[in-house]
Predict the 3D structure of the following.
Amino acid sequence: MSSTPKVWFITGSSSGFGRSMVELLLNKGNKVVATLRNPDASQTLPPNTPLPNSSSPSERSTLSSTMRVRPRWERSKAVPEEAARSVFEVNFWGAANVTKEAVRFFRDVNTPPGGRLLQVSSQVGIAGAPAVGFYSASSQVRILVQFLEGLSECLSTELDPAWNIKVTIIEPGPFRTKIVTENMKSAPQLPAYADPQSPSSQIRAYFSPESGAVDGDADKAVAAMEKLAHLDNPPLRLPLHKWTVAAIKEKIQKVLEEVQAYESWSNDLYIN
């Protein structure tokens, strides 16, 4: 793709990756439309950040209704159903609705047609981890249409090449954003899992704001994400962080071993 300024639509720009991406793109001279839960957050952009003219009232009304519920990381066995449903509301329906409208815009409105759909998933979206059951499940469950991982992979196979729409699933590992320092909501730990040596306890300790163990630099991750917009043939998946790379490699190896061990079970299952 050319290096000329682009128009970006970013959901969730109050903080974290979204906020970093907004700042990076504006400083590169791009046009940005961003949704955020906290409108006051836009007032704290760096003083020299170039800001485009505000959208019309009708446009602001449309955009402000896009995302309402913050995602949270919680234990699947200790989480009330209402809290779990709120995770799915944003991680499934929010992503599915934005994806559908983005593809329509890229296909029917852009001249010539085309666009880049960057879906920010998570390491646990492809390789599950203890203590984040509902967050992880919402990235894997197949309900009506498949959520981020499955939805995006299926979508990539359905797109007419003539539309020039490219999809990339970005799978960050642990990066130091407000999801670690402020926004992570953790349900009380069940006594059965309270052993400090248990996997869930260790994950809780690692993501504790007091630990300081999360070592990913969000600004550097966003710079890597932005590079995708300049690739003619971007990857379907982009793992970011050494933990994510290692987790995906480990999962691929385990899946391959199980498939090879049990593939003979499929030998005699067919209509003669």
Observations:
- Confidence is low (pLDDT under 50) at residues 53-78, 130-146.
- The radius of gyration is 20 Å.
